């Protein structure tokens, strides 16, 4: 009877240590490969949004940096420079629709006079899809209107 039971077990795969080890090794390999794939996947974050660089230069003064394009806003960040303490500089940005209509504007808080400084500000449009164009300007650093725009450049998404 033991011989008959052993023959039946080997035909059905029951009590076969080799089959069980193969199944466990396959399952373990699948888990390891899946975990490796998840660990290698990039994390969602700012890198998922398009970034443009800008450079608006007038003589020895400039504003340079990046525009990060989000769904309803842009972040304008970089550095601006003034070479003369009597002539201050700042950065302005205008969020525009594809047809050129102004959606919103923003200004750097820390303007410079005879030095350089880093800045970052957000221009929020509340328009679905955000702006299609951002016009970045090097300005006279005025804290209140009228602001004089020395030079402006347009950058598209």
Give a quick set of tags describing it.
157 residues; alpha+beta; 5-stranded antiparallel beta sheet; 4-stranded antiparallel beta sheet; 2 helices; 22% helix; 43% strand
Written account of the structure:
This protein is of the alpha+beta class. The protein is 22% helix and 43% strand. Strands 4, 5, 6, 8 and 9 form a five-stranded antiparallel beta sheet that branches. A four-stranded antiparallel beta sheet has the order 1-2-3-7, with no helix packed on it. The radius of gyration is 31 Å and the shape is globular.
Secondary structure elements and pairings:
Blueprint: H1 2-12, H2 17-40, E1 51-58, E2 61-69, E3 73-81, E4 88-96, E5 102-107, E6 112-113, E7 116-124, E8 133-139, E9 149-156
Antiparallel strand pairs: 1-2, 2-3, 3-7, 4-5, 4-6, 4-8, 8-9
Task: Kindly summarize this structure in a few lines.
With 157 residues, the protein is α+β, with helices and mostly antiparallel strands.
Q: Roughly what percent helix?
A: 10-25%
Number of helices: 2
Assembly level: single chain
* First and last CA, distance: 80 Å
Low-confidence stretches at least 5 residues in length (pLDDT < 50)?
5-14, 31-44
Shape: globular
Following the backbone from N to C, one meets helices and strands in this order, namely HHEEEEEEEEE
Rg over CA atoms: 31 Å
Largest sheet data: 5 strands, antiparallel
What structural class do helix, strand and pairing data support?
Answer: alpha+beta
Mean pLDDT: 81
Beta-strand segment tally? 9
What fraction strand?
35-45%
